Amino acid sequence: MMTRNSRLAKLFETITDDLPTIGPILVIRATGNPAYHAFDPSTLHCTQSFKPDVDTLERMGLTTHRAIPENATAAIVELTRSKPENLSNIAKAHAALNLGATLYIDGAKTDGIDSILKAVKKLTVIDGSYSKAHGKTIWLTKNQNDNPFQNWLGLTDCQKNKDDFWTVPGIFSADAIDPASAMLCENITQPLIGKGADLGAGWGYLGQHALQEYPKITHIDLYEAEQISLDCAQKNITDARTDFHWCDIQEMPVKPAYDFILMNPPFHVSRKADPAIGRAFIAKAAKMLTSKGRLWMVANKQLPYEACLNDHFNTWDYVKQTNQYKIIHARRPK
Q1: What does the DSSP assignment read for 30-95?
Q2: Do both 262 and 314 map to the same domain?
Q3: Which of 44, 131, 184, 203 is close enough to 232 for a disulfide, judged by CB 3.0 to 4.6 Å?
Q4: C-alpha Rg value of the chain to the nearest Å
Q5: Which of 129, 156, 183 is the last residue of a domain?
Q6: 289-300 and 325-333 beta bridge pairing
Q7: Is 272 helix (H, G, I), strand (E, B) or coil?
Q8: Where a domain ends, among 156, 180, 197?
Q9: Which distant-in-sequence residues (6+ apart) come within 8 Å of 253 by Cβ?
Q10: How many structural domains comprise the chain?
Q11: Which of 137, 115, 114, 116 is CA-nearest to residue 127?
Q12: pLDDT one-digit tens code per residue, 287-327
């Protein structure tokens, strides 16, 4: 079955003679897409802020960047699940292109490619569209210096949300404090003391709350795979007891170090739920805690984490359950 990755690769196979041979070829939100093999690796300028994808790109021999180059000879925008981010990325890619260069936009239906196509067509002419594998690749030529997508450039500016925290549209719970995280903070039944960590810290709510409420915390490490979220966390938390780590929790080496761990672990990367991610977080937390360390976590009630907790902790219990969430307190890691 054709996948999203093979869709773009298949298109490039049919237009090989039209692809640029010199760079920089900009790829925004680059993944491990085999379509990139259509280009000399030295010509690709990949931007990506999600650490697992960065690691994949590095294994492919590609270097990732945060800055977008000028005078790109072509650009590829791979869609995410966030429409504001997608629109902003399209505007940034167009701005980076040389006149006459081509912008390719690739995404699945679940990424909103059809909505993106309609929005783009309202502002400029589309050269072509290629539909496969429940998605599309569309492309257009930069034929004017004026950016038709100028009004989209600011859609991912960092701004205060309604709870007065710095966030960026597209990251988890950007608009307000996540209800599950708020419920976890309300149901920590013993004071947090000593050195702690927040796994999958997002824009920093759990860490900020812990530092504010528990003065006997000596230090807290925030671990987050999305650099954009971590940038927000560094704006939201200015307490000197904090360090910030950009990493893939599932892959990082660990040793027992923490008296407590807080987490509201992710349970999907795509739109489909994947409880294996949360189970990996639980297993990692058990390895990161001291023998007397404690895990405080929240999860959607239906996610099957109980067997994993039995495997990695000698004792755990539900602190609170609602129709939607469960708060879990685990200790004595195995």
Answers
A1: --S-GGGGGS-GGGEEEE--BHHHHHHHHHTT--EESSPPSSEEEEEEE--S-HHHHHHHHHHHHH
A2: yes
A3: 203
A4: 22
A5: 156
A6: antiparallel
A7: coil
A8: 156
A9: none
A10: 2
A11: 137
A12: 999 999 999 999 999 999 999 999 999 999 999 999 999 99
Q: Counting beta carbons within 10 angstroms of the beta carbon of residue 246, is it exposed (0 to 12), middle (13 to 18) or buried (19 or more)?
A: middle
CA distance 232 to 143: 36
The answer to whether residues 259 and 203 touch, using CB atoms and an 8 Å cutoff, is no
The predicted pLDDT at position 147 comes to 97
Asked if 8 and 144 sit in the same domain, the reply is yes
> Which residue matches tokens 């409420």?
213
Same structural domain for residues 60 and 108? Answer: yes
196 and 150 in one domain? no
Tokens of 136: 């599309």
- Note the pTM of the prediction, 2 decimals: 0.92
Residues 6+ apart with CB under 8 A from 164: none
Clarify whether residues 118 and 131 are in a common domain: yes
Centre a 10 Å sphere on the Cβ of residue 101 and count the other Cβ atoms it contains.
20
Residue 5 predicted with pLDDT over 70: no
Q: What is the pLDDT of residue 272?
A: 60
Q: Find, among 216, 161, 172, the residue nearest to 190 by Cα.
A: 216
Phi then psi dihedrals of residue 193, to 5 deg: -135, 140
Same domain, 57 and 112: yes
| Same structural domain, 260 and 277 | yes
Smallest CA-to-CA distance from 133 within 115, 104, 113 is with 113
The answer to whether residues 138 and 192 belong to one domain is no
**CATH number of the domain bearing residue 119:** 3.40.50.150
Q: Which domain holds residue 227?
A: 159-333
